[in-house]
Every structure is written in structure tokens, then in C-alpha cells.
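User: what does the whole thing look like in 3D?
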Amino acid sequence: MSVLQKSLHPDEKYKAGKLGSGLSNIGLGIAAVFLGVSIALGAAQGDHWKRFFYAYVIGWSYIFSICVGVFWLILLHHLVRGRWATVVRRIAEAMTMAFPVVFVAGLVFVIALLAGYKDLYYWAHPDAALCLEKTATGCHEYLHPTLVHKLGWLSPEFFAGRYVVYGVLFTAMAAYFAKKSRQQDDSGDPKLSENMRVASGPAMILYSLLTCLAAFDVLMSLAPKWYSTIYGVNFWGSSCVGGFAALGLLVLGIQRTGRLTHSVSPEHYHDIGKWMFAMTFFWAYTAFSQFMLQWYGNLPEETVWYKYRLFGEWQWVSIAMLVGFFAFPFVFLMSRWTKRIVPSLVFFAVWQLVFHWLDLYWNAMPSYDWTVQQHGAAQIVVGPMTGNTAYHHVGFSPIDLTVWLGLVGVLLFGIGRNLRGNLIPVKDPTLGLSLAHENL
Amino acid sequence: MSDEHTPVPSSPGSGGDDLEHGGTAVRRDGRLFGVLAEYDTPGELVEAARKVRDAGFTEFDCYSPFPVHGIDEAMGIKRTILPLLIFGGGFAGTIGGLLLQWWCNAYNWPWNISGKPSWSIPANVPIAFETTILLAVFTSFFGMWILNRLPQVWHPFFRNERFNHVTDDAFLIGIEARDRRFDPVATAKLLTDAGAITVERVHLDPDPEVRQMPKWITAFIVASTAFALIPFAIAAKARTSHSAEPHIHIFPDMDFQPKYKSDQAMDLFGDGRENRGEIAGTIARGSLDADDTFYRGIEHGGDGDHWTTAFPRQIEINDQLVRRGKNRFEIYCTPCHGHDGRGMGAVPQRVAAAGGAWLARNLVDASNPVAINMPNGQLFNTISNGYNTMMGYAAQIPHADRWAIVLYVRALQRSQNAALDDVPPDQRTGMQMPEAPRP
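Assistant: Here's the predicted 3D structure for the full assembly of 879 residues, as C-alpha cells:
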């Protein structure tokens, strides 16, 4: 307990061996089964795949956000010359190296969008900004004052172009840190740590911008007339909750296979739990900041988003979010012991992973109820979020779950592909400090 | 005393040795306070602390320049209860913050602000959040001081020269003589066996004065506390007494600034005024409101001036202008006159509900057609300059918008007194005449 440095335990099993291929096979199996079921359900739905694509966007945001959350740990670790996370960094790197697989999985809805599919993002309709107001003498037509300006940004081609840029940049950044880290396994050159530290600053800026923009594009544009500048930050907070929960579970799963049993201690789980706790509060803080300003300002174009989440059936989901994603884990994760006792940490990690999905569902699904009506030569988009809130149902569908689980399988496949070689950066100069890490 | 010293390695200048070495016998020693052992590294300190703990000692402490990992466990120190206290403090802050807002806003002085509820949880969260943080941090900060029995201005180990390095590079264990297992020789041997570089005895100063806080510090604390209470005393006196004296100006140069404000007297100019008015015969750019019809609603006829019944020539009457008028009307007029112009907007309704009366003109009343019969110019003038308790809106609403409102009021008057014949025949389907014509 008293030493500041430790060396790797001689009996430590830190080689991945068949771990990665096993995990990716499991992931592929899950993905094949659940996505297969989802496709069957989607076809049976008879809604021109609309529900399927909504569920897909939520599921995709979920696996993307977990990579985003874990990547934060890597970037921050290098930026502040962190120590404790060195033992779990290689696993985190394997998780972020799922970015290419995640972005390939997302091509499903991006290509559909490019091919002219208009039932997911209604801004894909050419007349999306056209609005009607009934007057005494007929219909008054006008262009929605904010949406009309956004349609340049929200065009399928530009959207797809940005998506590719996000995919390439996230993959490149994740690959840079993973590659340098593995190089250090061979050479042990401390200069590589310095390289990563220098790169982590600009990467952090780029990472923040890309995360916000991706959240704006993929999730916020489901309700393109509404806007919130803190939306990306709020998405990021939720992502980090999911990311740290997933990291904790994965590390624990790896320990269950007999690997890393001497290296990862309750001290490291404690720190993962601390991050989960901190980001839970951060999520609540930004979510409340977004709500508070729009609720108090009471501008129709802003409050409408909350109106359809705080009244009708959706209010129960909102209450579940407040209690389940914030109040309950906040109060219990505050204690030192809930983070250090592994079963308790596992409980909260699984809990938060479920509620992280519910958060994305809550963000996306109230924007589902919209239809298109012919008006002369134009197609008018009616809804989402119009009319009496009592008629807006949560309308949960099994396809929401199956697509989510299928995409989690895709994520596991992407992670498993990269769990190879050393599971610990064996020659990292800070490894000794990390192994001896202790929370005061 | 000297025979006790023999087994203990010591160095000149340390507390216990001045007498023995005899050179500068300026310090005399009192009762033995304890032994102080120095270790080379934090690791050895932790190991030694563990041995001391295992030997059953309780009255000992470790001193190091920085927090040493694992020292709490090695010394057998129980976890602090400070986190629980902080949680309690934070919780008290949340409840206190909510209670404060409830008492101020909803109980003691409820005040209707734009019809918003006086008690609303979301609006109270930011304040409750701040008070939570405040009390949690206070508990954390002051709780740490109290639990550590700080501030401690004097400690017997201060007499030891090695102890001065404890904020620099020394790792020390001090065992106090009041521990029931303490034995000057055996305890020193234990510490030496645990790897100490040096072990020294520390004696109290025989003069009890030295052990107490210096009198000037006590005096300073008392004086500054008394001084800090003066403003409160003055405020308390001012609240309970009357005085013909002028205000106390704490920052007179802020209260009396060397500058002139509007409409003050000034000797510099012949008229004795600080204001410089408009130069005779000139008009400021954009202020030539020569068109009486547009700017004042007045027409000059052969029989004198009268309110215009038409709209000024600058105003083009179209659908867009009606919409503009509706929009402005709903912003400025509906709170009192209501959306339908019948004079029962939100304000009169609320005042009526509270038992009072707030009269707003029914603009569309055909049985008492004051507003209907007003010429356009008079309506415009009323909007500009007000009428009875209604204040003028000239400062808020530009002239063209005032004319748009006049136009919309005319439209309201038409629509609220419309008959079925006014509706184009192709749009009458589904419309039903009221059973009796409107009064």
C-alpha cells in the first residue's frame, strides 16, 4: 500500500490472446440476430421503415456516444498527464478504435438519406420550411423563418459529407493515440508519451467541435425548427456517463477471464465510478440549463420541444429520466463504497447504460409524429410536436429495443477487433504509478 | 536527566540537548513531551507508522511535507466523518435555499410578476443549487478546521529544529509521552529499529507562558473582531433611532461626482442652466414631424383642424398591414383590451378576481359606440398620448405601427359586429347565426 510505484505482477496475464476474436464473434452474433429480427419487424411495421430508421438513429447515437465518452478519458489522460488510467487505457483505446465500425454502421441511414429517403429527417423534403396558417380567406403560406435558413446546412448531400468528415477525423484521432500507444509497447520510448500529450490538446478541441456538430446533425435535426446551443454539450455529458459505465463493465469482464487480475484494483474502479458520478451530475446540470432557460424564456419556438416532453404520456419518461438518470444514481454514487464494491458499481453501470439509451430515446422519439400533406404542388410537413399533447404517445415499439441491441452487438464487434496484443501499455512510463494508484 | 539521554542519538541545538552540551544554556527543559523520529523516505515512514501502530500506540502522529499514500491505513486512522457532515451541510443548503425562496416569494411578500406563479420549483433550482454548494463548502472548510483542531498556533514539537523541515523534506513520527505505552528508552528503540535516521526527545518549555498564544495575537483577534462589529452596530443603531443628521457617505466621491447631470444649475452659461437646448431655428435630423396627419392624426380643413377620418397617404392599406396591426395589438393592447377588444384582457380579469376594478374601454361595443365612432385620427392620438388611466404609447410604438393598430382596431370592430351577410356566400357553409342578434 505504501509504495508510489509498482511493477507489473510477474504472473499477470496481460495478453489478449483469443479474447478479442471471442468478443467480436459474440458481437457479430448479437448483431446478426437482433438486426435480423429488427429488419423483419421493420418490414412488418408497414410504415415505410420509418420506425426502424428512428430506432436505428437512436441506436447508432448510442454506440457512437460510448466511443465518444471513452475517447474523452484517453484525451484527458494525455492532456493532464494522468496516471491512474494508464492500466485501463489500452482497453479504452480498443473501444475508441471501434469508431470506424460505428461509422460504417451509420452509413445505413446516411446512404438511405442520400438515396432520397425522406421519412427520417423531414428537412429532407424540399418544401420542409413551408408552413400554413389558416386564415379567414383560406391559407396563408409562409416559410419558417429559422428553418428556411437551415436547409442549406441540412441538405442530404452536405449532411452525408459532414458525416464522412466526422467518421474520418474521429477514426484518425483514435487511431493516432492507439498506434502511438502500441509503438511504446515495443520501444518503451518516453518521447511517445510526450507526442501524445502534445497531440491531445488540438485533438481535444477538434473532438469537442465534432461531438457537438454530430449531436446537432444526427439528433437535434430530428426537430429542425427547434434549437439549443447547449445540446451538443448535454449529449456529450450523457455520452461520458455511458462511456465510463461501458469501460467499467468491459474491464471487469476482461478480469473475469483471468486477465489483468493483479493490475486493475478497486482503486481504478473507484475512479471510473467517480467519473460516472461526475458526468451524471454534469449531464443533469446541462440538461437543466437547457430546460431552465427555455422554460423561463417561454418563447414558443423553444418551449414547444419541452411541451411535448413534459405533458401527456412523455411526462412519465421525463420523470423517469430525472429520477433514474440523475437523482437515484447521484445520491448513491456519491458514497465512496458504492464505487469501490464491484457488484454495486456493476449495478450502477448497467443502470446508467440503460438510462443513457433512454436519454437518447427521449431526445429523438417525441419528434417521430409527423406526416406529409399535399398542398397544391407542394408537400407540407405537418408536425412533429403540434396539436394536443394528449394525443402524443410514447408508442414504444419492440423494434426500438432490437435495433439498439443489434447495434450494441456491432459495437462489441468493433471493440473485439482491437482487443489484441497487450491489454496494458506495458512500457508506459506512468504504468508503475498507475498500478500503485490509491485514492486518498 | 542526562542519564536518560544516553541511548538516544541526538544532535546539537535540538530541544533536549542544550543543557547537556552546556554551551549556550539559554533554554531550560520542562517535562518530557515525547520523542520525534525522522525517516528518510515516505515509504519508510509508512512502514514505521505501521510498526508503531502494531506496538499499540495511539497518541502519535506522522508529519510529512505532502500527503503520503497509505499513511491513514498504516497509522490505523479511521475514515473521517467529514463527507457525512458535508452531505448534511449540502442537504441543509438545498432545503434552506428552497425555504428561503418560498418564504420570500410565496409567503411573506408574494408579488405578481407577469402572472407567473409565486412558487415554482424549476425557477428555484438555481438558488437552491447555489445554497447547496455554499453550505457544503462551508461545512467542508470549517469542518476540516474543527476536526483537525485547527488553528493550532503552538505545538511542543516546534521546539525541535528538525521539525522545521517538515514542510520541506522531513518525514517524522512523533510519539507523545502521554501514551500509556510510552517509555522513553523502549519507544526510542522501537523507532530506531523501524529505520529512523535520528530519534530525539522533545521537552516542554518550563515556562507555561511560552505554551500559550502570545498576548498580542489574542489582543489583535479581540480588537479586529470588535472593529468588524462596528458597521453592524451603526446599522443597528440607525434602525432603532431617529437622526436629523445627513446620510453617512462611505464613498463620497462616488455619491458626489464632479460632473453635471441633466437639468442642473450651472454658472458657466448665461441662462444659468447646464442643459444646452436645441439651437433656435434648427431641427434635429429625423425629427421633422411636419406632416400633421401622419404624426398627429390631424387634418387642416377650411373649417379648422379636425381628426382625420381616413388614413394618412403614407399608409398603404393591405393584408400585411392588418397582420402587423394584429401583431402589435396583441403585444401592447391585449393585456387590457383583450384579444377581441372587449376590454376584458388578462389584467382586468385578474384585478376583478382580486376584488378590484380595472376599466379598459370596450373598443367594439356597438351599444355604446364611443370607440367605433372615434375618427381614425383620434384613435391614433389616443394610442400616442393615452386616455384617462391609459398611458401613451408614443415612446414604444413607431408611428406607422400605431396606424397599423388603428387599422386592426377597425377590423376588430367590423368582425365583432358582423352579420352573416358580411361573409362571402361561398364561405357561409357551416356558419350559424346566433340565436339572438348581438346586443
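In plain terms: The interface with chain B takes residues 1-4, 136-137, 288, 291-292, 295-296, 334, 336, 436, 438, 440 of chain A (CB under 8 Å). Chain A has a mean pLDDT of 93.
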